[in-house]
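Lecture 7, part B: from sequences to assemblies.

Below are the input chains for today's worked example.
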Amino acid sequence: MKDAFGAPQSLLVLGGTSEIGLATARRLIARRTRVVWLAGRPSPALTAAADSLRALGADVRTVPFDALDTESHEERLGKVFTEGDIDMVLLAFGVLGDQARDESDPVAAVRVAQTNYTGAVSAGLVCAGALQAQGHGSLVVLSSVAGERARRANFIYGSSKAGLDAFAQGLGDALHGTGVHVMVVRPGFVRSKMTAGLAEAPLATTPEAVAGAIELGLRRRSETVWVPGALRMVMAAVRHVPRPLFRRLPV
Amino acid sequence: MAVETHVLDDDCEAITGWGRTAPTLARVQRPRGHAEVAEALRACGPRGAVARGLGRAYGDAAQNAGGTVLDMTGLDRILAVDTTAGLVACEAGVSLHRLMEALLPFGWFVPVTPGTRYVTVGGAIGADIHGKNHHVSGSFGRHVTALELLTADGEIRTVVPGTTLFDATTGGMGLTGVILSATLRLLPVETSLMRVDTERVPDLDELMARLDDGDHRYRYSVAWIDLLARGAATGRAVLTRGDHAPYDALPRHHRARRDPLAFRPGRLPAPPPYVPGGLLGRTSVGLFNELWYRAAPRAATGRLQSLPAFFHPLDGVPHWNRIYGPAGFVQYQFVVPYGQEDTLRRIVRRIADHRCPSFLAVLKRFGSGDPGWLSFPLPGWTLALDLPTGLPGLGRFLDALDEEVVGAGGRIYLAKDSRVRPETLAAMYPRLDEFRALRAALDPRSVLTSDLARRLAL
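Predicted structure of the full complex, as structure tokens:
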């Protein structure tokens, strides 16, 4: 169960090697979290991630999960919930893709869309149903500022996050009043292996900062969290920049 | 395996405790009699059921995520009153307020009352509540002469003091069974007024000395502490002690002479349903505390006060829990044994240094402990304070206070908890393993369960 401050005792991370996912798990283990499920494709990286959390004193288990294999989600994730209540699900998987290549390789572009959007729809619905059945819990969805307004530089990724964001907001409304809390997290540029080698955007942040914002959001039962918080105002302005002008902005 | 999805129906409600934190969804059933309780328990499904009274437990004791919550307030009959012996038999959903209304005209008062009259008899037994008279009267369970308990196997058992099941049930947080009715021993009173002595105390050491020195002369004793005062004023307090006023003590021509047992609690309007968070910050609470301390008489003896004014001032404001805003609040209540005064001083200093905006901080002395396995009181000092959950770092801070409390051989109160670490709990309640074993034997499928039970693996 969650405590009065929203700190969960059990956590399921979808995308078990995600840096934000692991930073959040570390932070929550320092509070109340004792059981962590890492869902991801079996790999040495997943094993290492599990070991690193185990070293912090948590009871860590892994479950094979592939965002693209939506047929398997209900069975794989459903099994996690039969082992005990999950107080928080962190939907943290996603790929950035390579915009330049993906524009000329529709199959690769579709894989980005399927991972980030279709896979999340499927996994999100499975987890939301299970949370609803247990009458409590948080579903935290990692969206992105990239989904707020499509940019020339990464609109394939951005559009997939826009879809995910809209889906998560709708799901949050559907679950309002059921004891299940859906929180959409919109980080800006996060310094991580996903963005290694890319030019840093203004207001860049870190996985640890995102984890901190998630913990605060849980305490406040927020529905939307921007990381850093200043992005809320920045994006409110960016959203209204006329397109001819937006096109020419160096963003 | 497919996930079973829950079909929401009209009976489902998101429920929280009085502190309004951590809501969870449950199907609420309102049984009207013993048979309906038994039926509801039989039909409750894999996530079990828990009884709930008037929802005054601060944390998650009367919540049951995904399962059933039995609203017991429909079982509200007073079954029998023996006005000679001072005994009342009533159903579990009867509130202490109702008992006072019904019994005061006969010159009887409830033996133990907490800071609110709006708790049910079932809840009072389940949490084994205490009042300002613990040093004289012990906890609520000590005044129960028998109770009817519906256990998970569907049997209704009559449980009497001195038995294992009784001691597991008083303070058992509703996890041994559903209390259906109980018989209580009452306290005789001549009037519905209190004779009260009030004094201002400049600091904590002086307060503890005065409590130590004079408590045995009063049935009721409580100290309100200003936890925002620092330095030399740390722990300054208003000490209030009193007794039921005997008829002869009423001044000549006092209107209560004509109707000495009248009971007419007044009520103020409730705060609106939505109150923004953050109203109770350090400035506003600091100002309140300053005024409250200054407004108290330096020393006044023998003032007459009504029962509600003395025992339940907050009951005059319905839904006062809303003033903490939507994020809610936690109440932290702990006890440390006598001989651990240094721990108490250290904790009070830490709270004052942390600048916790608490305007309801109360210090009391407990008498001898109670037989309930998970009963909270033990002989020592108990401090209770309300804190808004939005206070940065509060979770960690209270965890650190828990460490001090455990180190001193103390414990925190389950009826008010919504945040203690499960691993800390065993050190606080030495009979926890026995309780778990009894539950496993009595209720192997955990039919009776709650969010509190899940959170702390009770």
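Note for the exam: Chain B has two domains: 78-189, 193-421. Keep this in mind when comparing with the next example.
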